[in-house]
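Hey, resending since the last one bounced:
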Amino acid sequence: MGALYWQLNDIWPAPTWASLEFGGKWKMSHYFMRNIFDNLLLVPYEENETLKVAVIRDDYSGSLTFNLSIKVLKWSSLNPTLTAYTIVSTEGFSSKIVYENSITNVMNSGNCLDRRECLIEVIYFETQMA
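The structure tokens again:
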């Protein structure tokens, strides 16, 4: 869609913003860029003390059903304090909000009293194409 990704490689070995090293080895940013033009995008955001998750689809694949996972993690632990799942269905070339819940409810359900101590992770798992 006309996007340009120009910070690809270097012509000499040096610490730069390029995503490929001089010899062709991938840096962490290149692994991230691999998925930047994916056809399915989850957009979690907060609006008026409400956690919302929007799904943006940019393909002709028809109906898609997948599991949406929302986790609350504390910075002091590797294990999530809350894991919630919901099944979501979307159509091709669409954008819609698929999840809404109060931030306070999500944090309290995850035993997180101070928002600075926690992180919310939103991911999806595809289940089937229709």
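The beta strands are 40-47, 50-57, 64-74, 80-90, 95-102, 118-129.

Sorry for the duplicate.
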